[in-house]
Amino acid sequence: MFEGGNHGQTIVSSTKGSVDDKIFAELLGEHYHKKLCEDIELLDMAGDAFDRKKIQQGELTPMFFGSAMTNFGVQPFLEEFLELSPKPGIKNSTEGEVDPESDKFTGFVFKIQANMNPAHRDRIAFIRICSGRFSRGMSVYHVQQGKEVRLSQPQQFMAQERTIVEEAYAGDIIGVFDPGIFHIGDTLSEGNSNLKFEGIPIFPAEHFAKVTPVDTMKRKQFIKGINQLSEEGTIQVFKQIDIGFESLIVGVVGVLQFEVLEYRLKQEYGVDLRIQRLPHKHARWIVSNDIEPRNLTLTSTTMVVHDEDERYVLLFENEWSIRWAEEKNPSLKLHDIAKRDF
Fold first, then answer.
1. CA angle 189–194–196, rounded 5-degree value
2. CA angle 133, 135, 137 (to 5 degrees)
3. CATH number of 91-198
4. Which segment of 27-31, 68-72, 100-104, 239-243 scores lowest on mean pLDDT?
5. What is the value of pTM for the model shown?
6. Is residue 342 scored above 50 in pLDDT?
7. What percent of the chain has pLDDT over 90?
8. N or C: which end of the chain has fewer CB within 10 A?
9. What is the secondary structure of 268-296 as a DSSP string?
10. Structurally, what CATH architecture does the domain formed by 201-340 represent?
């Protein structure tokens, strides 16, 4: 039971206890107390028993009830989340397994976010520390760039607040200013220029559309915005081949991402979009570099495109088209998930 809270400004006053306690029946009244007991019984029947091992193996997801708007249950959730969260684990690399307790710093970029502060057009690279100790201003080796870089102005974020980080350890996440040198999947290491973490999978898009700027004079801003959102991982960008002009096709996992694309290009880059939805539902990467896609026997609706790394990708309308392509081209091997290696 809870009350107060000033719309989330302060932690609400709450009373803890068992639903069977008489005090709750008195506070709620017979009707609502009976409804609460029925709801809890339903949850007990529909859910699984708490099992910490299954949670840490990703087989079970704990559920918490609370309200951020009234500041009820937020503190217990955060405390329990820290208790349930597993310790940083071993991560595979080209140099073997990286132990989180190693003295040498390693980390990888897992997220890029631009325009977090629209007034300054900043771009932040989020880094997960895999081992060692990070200290503010330290120099590390950027494997993909092949050079040393200095990690200045490291920050951590809580909602709209930013704080400067002096040091961080394995399992922590920090954000650093990105002048355009970082990409998702980049490896940073201390003292080992050969160490490289495995690429991050690119999950296949299920919805596709051709996108063009309404105002052709804003082509430059359009390309900048599309490239930025692609580097963030918000969208996947493909280019049609052999059509005489550059035609961009955007792929997304969910249709709402088209709305995000449209909104951000308008708000952050001043570009109105023209979106032409396509009937294709599946993207498949061609595994072998020896295959010439133009010589493949494909259905008339199958589209051959390049991804951002100039790899050939086939866009299919349905599963039948995929099977047909594989049957007609015995040497053709397709992957539904690709990895980005820069």
1. 65
2. 145
3. 3.40.50.300
4. 68-72
5. 0.70
6. no
7. 45
8. N
9. HH---EEEEEES--EEEEE--TT--GGGS
10. 2-Layer Sandwich (3.30)
